[in-house]
Specification:
heterodimer; A: 106 residues; mainly beta; 6-stranded mixed β-sheet; 5-stranded antiparallel β-sheet; 11 strands; B: 115 residues; 7-stranded mixed β-sheet; 4-stranded antiparallel β-sheet
Chain lengths: 106, 115
């Protein structure tokens, strides 16, 4: 089993929609996690870190469920500019999932 | 404050040659990580350097190697290049990898094309 697994998508949503991604991890020793955003042919940029049960920043909410070993990212009121690939992973090894592609349409 | 910088931004090599990629971390960061991202694939972990030492290595052949200098900058060397090595190579730096909780920031990457 891969250390971090994500649904590759793509997720096609209209503007204004709420969308959620899940990410499962296998290393139960991981203490903290992250979500990065990667635009096409660009470097990943840190979106949110998750150290405890969750974190919220504006339209973005990240949650951590240690019992089930998954991390989720919720995006509310989607914007066209949210279209990107979202990568999750754990800080213990800086291992990333393959990413989930989000396409927000007008 | 300058972010992580990588050079060159693009590199074209022929099969069998060697490639050297460079990375300068954010000032004050001691950990440097290297990743390979082939087209359509996720980030594959290559190497982690901290305080001049190799701390961890991904599942890549020995022809992928590197080092970290006393100023914490790093080089990635790829010997005997193969066509499949064509990818975006990303470097990231963090304040202190040993703490497991420090955030990492990426450079813009070096796009290596092997022909």
């Amino acid at each position: 089993r891969k250390e971090v697994e994500q649904d590759p998508g793509p997720f096609n949503v209209p503007e204004g929609a709420t969308v959620a991604f899940n990410c499962t991890y296998s290393n139960s020793a991981s203490q903290s996690f992250f979500w990065y955003r990667q635009d096409c042919r660009k470097e990943p940029k840190l979106l949110m870190s998750v150290y405890s049960s969750g974190n919220e920043d504006g339209r973005f909410t990240a949650q951590l469920n240690r019992a089930s070993q998954y991390i989720s990212l919720l995006i509310r009121d989607s914007k066209l500019s949210d279209s990107a690939t979202y990568l999750c992973g754990g800080y213990s090894t800086l291992t990333f999932g393959k990413g989930t592609m989000l396409l927000v349409s007008p | 404050e300058a972010g992580v910088t990588q050079s060159p931004t693009h590199l074209i090599k022929t099969r069998g040659q060697q490639a050297t990629l460079r990375c300068s971390p954010i000032s004050g960061h001691t950990s440097v990580y290297w990743y390979q991202q082939a087209l359509g694939l996720g980030l594959q972990f290559l190497l982690w350097y901290d305080e001049g030492e190799e701390r961890n290595r991904g599942n890549f052949p020995p022809r992928f190697s590197g080092r970290q200098f006393p100023n914490y900058s790093s080089e990635l060397n790829v010997n005997a290049l193969e066509l499949e090595d064509s990818a975006l190579y990303l470097c990231a730096s963090s304040l202190d990898g040993a703490q497991w909780v420090t955030e990492a920031f990426f450079g813009q990457g070096t796009r290596l094309t092997v022909v």
